[in-house]
Write a structure and sequence with these properties.
Elements (H helix, E strand, L loop, with lengths): L1 H12 L4 H61 L1 H4 L2 H9 L2 H7 L4 H5 L3 E5 L5 E6 L10 E2 L2 H9 L1 H4 L7 E8 L6 E10 L13 E8 L2 H11 L6 E5 H12 L5 H6 L7 E8 L2 E11 L5 E10 L1 H51 L4 H5 L9 H62 L6 H32 L7 E4 H19 L2 E6 L6 E4 L1 H17 L5 E10 L10 E9 L6 H6 L21 H11 L3 E6 L5 E8 L16 E3 L7 E3 L15 H8 L7 E5 L3 H13 L3 E5 L2 H10 L4 E5 L7 H9 L2 E2 L3 E2 L5 E5 L4 H9 L4 E4 L4 H17 L15
Parallel strand pairs: 12-14, 20-21, 20-22, 22-25, 25-26
Antiparallel strand pairs: 1-2, 1-6, 2-3, 4-5, 5-6, 7-10, 8-9, 9-10, 11-13, 12-19, 14-15, 15-17, 16-17, 18-19, 23-24
Helix pairs in contact: 2-9, 2-12, 12-14, 14-15, 14-21, 15-19, 16-17, 17-19, 22-23
Length: 838
Amino acid sequence: MLASINTWLGKRFGHWPIARKVLVLKAISVLLLLAFMWGVGQLVLMRQFKAIETNITHTSVHRVRDAFLQSVDDLESSFLDWSQWDDAYVFVHNKNPRFIGSNFAGDTLANAKVNFMAFYSPNGQLIYGQYHSLSKKYEKPKPLPKNLQAFFKKKWTVLAPLTEKSARSGFVNIATPTAPIWINLTTQRIVPSNGKLATGEKPGLLLVGKVLSKPELERLRILTAITPNDLQLLPIATYWQAHRHYNQQPKPLDVAQENYNDEYPVLYQYPVRHAVPHVAGLTLIRDYWGLPRFAIQVAQERTVYLQAKQSLLWFMVLMALLACFTVGFNYYLLNQLVLKRLKVLSQGVVFAAGKPRPEDAIVGELTGKTDEIDLLAKYIKNTFTLLRVKGLKLQEETKRTLKANQAKREFLANMSHELRTPLNGVIGMTTLLCDTQLDAEQEDYVSTIHISATTLLELVNDILDFSKIEEGKLVLDKAPVDLQLLLTTMQQLIAPSLREKGLRFSFNIHTQVPRYGVGDALRLKQVLLNLLSNAIKFTPHGSITLHVDYIPTFDVGTSDGEGVFSFVVEDTGIGLTFKQQDKIFQQFEQADTSTTRKYGGSGLGLSISKSLAVLMGGDLGVLSEPGQGSKFWLMVPLPLDPSKDPYAFVSLTPNLLAPEGGPTSYVPKSSFVSPTEPLGATKAASAFASQLSNFPHILVVEDNIVNQRVASRLLEKLGARITVASDGSEALMLLSQERMDLILMDCQMPVMDGYETTQKIRALTVGETETLPNTPIIALTGNVIPEEMTQCLESGMNDVITKPVQLVILQEKVSYWLNRQLNQGPAQESPHSTEGVG
């Protein structure tokens, strides 16, 4: 028998490693030990705690039962003097009205804490009866309810204590239209104070009762220190059902009623409140006539049992942890002393020899003084040599990968510069060309060129953003955000497109949207502009609405100044199917992928916007139906700016006020752009030039001739005098001869680039004492990679303008730095550099 078992075990588990065998055997031993300890705890320890729990429940049930019976005795003894009073005796026989007026004030029932009191004549006629609800303290007593009068009249023969016993008390059940109610009732014979009645004379009857309402049950619960909601009155059938369940033997109800025990409660367990286990005890209560009529249930949480069970569970957990530690420590010793060496040797044979069986690897290679360990060590050494070679190859691969990534970044930087430089010329020249005398056809051609160049610029921006997001190089800025200025700026940017398609645009801004926050205004504007541009593109006619709302957050761990800004771009366009909604946020995916698609695009805009929303801690989504328009929603958490007025809210010119208390719809003044407004910048330039004085002298350092002309012409329209330098050396020579008010510096130039030129300008001296450390220098660069823009600021430049140069951005930057130079004081925050939006 044992031999057969050993053979079977050898076939089944003989190929297992020694470590696995040891661990399995120890694990089985630990499990058996824990199972034995758990069984002993359940059979011995938990049984004792169940007995303690039973005794506690018995005590609670007896305490509640005694309280109920004591309440009956208290009610009877409290009104015994009323029935043995000469005035009361005269009252029930002669109906003396002064008895009521002199003895029953309005608060008599309330002070006595009873619900009703009734005086009956010897022939059973009601002489006086009043009822008072104890739950309504200041309510005046009312006449005895008709249902009580009817019940007492019906039960008169069984209620009246006609024997020599002067009183009878107990609980009675009175039916009402809604539900039966239990009353603690005492009836007392009204006799003279000497207790003697005349021959043939019958006593009157005094009825006093207290309804077992919730306040009364609560009073009894407090007296007995029972947990709230654990004291209940139940039908007697529940008691017999519990009795049969507890004794585990079915008995007929009549047999059980004959053999019930008043003093010994029935116990059973059941989940009273969901998953919280309780133990319940029931005891019978006799009614007014001495019959068992209802049961009192006391349900208590199994605190003792649960604590014991939890203690046993924790004990088992600690024992399991101790067992695991012991197994682990034994395994560690076994591994260090035996298994580790065997494991190393076996792995050396497998990996070094490359054989399916270790013995095949060493057959024929053993010599006189060479044992298996030396041979296996040789294989192991060869294996490490191979691994070292592979490691060197991996290092080379890593270096090539890093070099390729560096080349990719340099390529993107160079391509950004090379693409933006000619685009700067195209967009700048078309802007200037629009200010010349053009007929309608020429203006249409120029507008087409401008739109095409802008579209190409958007594509370049999308590709660069996509690359930065893919590499994880996109870093968000944390700076003050003026939401009102941001919304106004966006409206101005989309105004030409709205004018061209004849679309109506409006803001729907909810009341009390904070104006100032902290975040990346550039990226927020980029996402919103993308959503608005898509809405314009896919809306043939109708309107576009931007809904703005603010939702304060009250999560634990967040400060009072945090909240979520909600932006919803709603249009009346072509809409999207459910399948299209699922794919438009994917990279290089569009709603219409057919070769005859009507709308253009690279398929990157919404993907980039989605990624930017997630980077800002928010989310982006869409709700749409074909032909019913779309709602693109953006949720962005922005902390409020603590340096600004917390009660400053976004406020634009209202066009239509919603009902009181609701959101307000706004239509900015410039939402409808006149078709006659020119594409060029003459109007804006004239307004800006009127603000400048003394014709500031600006040096433009740019090697590209086209860009020289674009920058010079734009600055001249702003009312400035322009001097042009083709490289850094020429710029230094000009600055040594004449002081400039502001310098526009290209970054990539021959002879001397913009970074080196800036550093030398900061150390340049004009004359004997005058230096140029404070002359504003603004970079003109086609690179939008953050590292390149940081390099501009670190080299000494004050600000950055990316190509293609926009007149609005150029005007904003030049105005800011010239005013700061003029005032020679601390300036407000520098305008953020804006990547060109076509």
